[in-house]
Write a structure and sequence with these properties.
alpha/beta, inorganic pyrophosphatase (n-terminal core), Diaminopimelate Epimerase, Chain A, domain 1, OB fold (Dihydrolipoamide Acetyltransferase, E2P), 3 domains, five-stranded mixed β-sheet, five-stranded mixed β-barrel, 23% strand, globular
Amino acid sequence: MKEDAIRQAHAAGAKLIISADCGIRAHEVVATAHRLGIDIIITDHHLPEEQIPPALAVLNPKRSDCAYPEKNLAGVGVAFKLVQALLKETGRERALPSFMKVAAIGTIADLVPLIGENRIIAKFGLDGLRQPRNEGLRALLDVADIRLDRPIRCDDIAFRVGPRLNAMGRMGRAHPIIELFWAETAERAQQMARTLDQQNAARQHAQQRVLEEAHRLLERDPHLAAGPVIVLAGREWHRGVIGLAASKTVDRFYRPPIIVSVQDGLGHGSGRSIPSFHLLNGLDHCADLLERYGGHAHAAGLTIREEHIPTLAARLNQYAHTVLSSDDLIPELEIEHWLSIPDIDFELWTALSQLEPFGVGNPKPVFAVRQGRIVDQPRLLKEQHWMFRMEQQGRRADVIWWNGVERAPDLAAGEAVSVAFTVDAHHYRGTLGLRLTVKDLKRGVPSR
């Protein structure tokens, strides 16, 4: 929430503003709205400070005085609970499933634990998405290549739908998303959906540029990644993608990173973390260096003067050394069971499907195979990913390794490999098949 937006709303005659996924630390902004005669209702899920803003109402399950049992709601989930209460109050609860579809998209995309009430929202929302009544939602699913004649899964939302919605806000103004869902004709909805698709492609390009420049910084100065926390700053990196770049940096280095875009002496940063490091607590120890900040254990945003960035890096690492051990910085992959390729069949996949929806807090079960052998030459996809077939005990399995080229650029036929994987379904020319999605791969034959 920003004061400029409040003043624009006042000029337009607004008397009430309802926030979604923001505002829990916006004390000055709420005070400005109050002086202008605007009521504020805050719906947010980020961690509050000791004092909450003086709004008309503050809905946040993380408030210390909030007795609501589900503390892990996403920002969209908190807004959804307000909608649910209003529908109940006005006798229109039959409309709730329509809102649950959108709540499911936001819940999955926000990477909150898919347990408790979040699991219910995700499950019934995903089921409802197969029957979209809104023209904009139908067009969005179409441009994301989501088929309505088969189950929609969390991966479809996380990797296809969510990024297209997020791209508009990251790359410019989010208003086209409103136009998409307000579209009254299929033609207008399709036009707006294509706009989202184009902006997502632009987002991917901008994200790749930031990642390449950030990794070049680390190559020139390995000391930047020597500590438990990585802080990287670049000139005019696109602010809309630095959070995504931070997530990719976690995946590669398994260190909490803060990626900062600097312009005119001011840095806007976004951070992501690992399970053992509470990022917001770390920033609390550096509060005197920051213009403003907020977030939660695993993600945070901040604003900082450029000259304070080196001190921020030093102080965060100093704090991290007091709460992290060397073992905390070693990624772990929990293997549910060792299988042989003949064990992997549709009966297994059907049983696993009963555990959906999968996500944070309810991850897909990871299995592993020892001493498989790559048959035929692996196929290279978009110069980043490997697709190959693996054989064991006379049976073969299709395998895909997203971003595997970075780890194994010279993967070849005939190699012995041990693979940790999830079991996934894929459709090809109207046929349903099974495919192993690599989570980790070890070349050679490991000892038991």
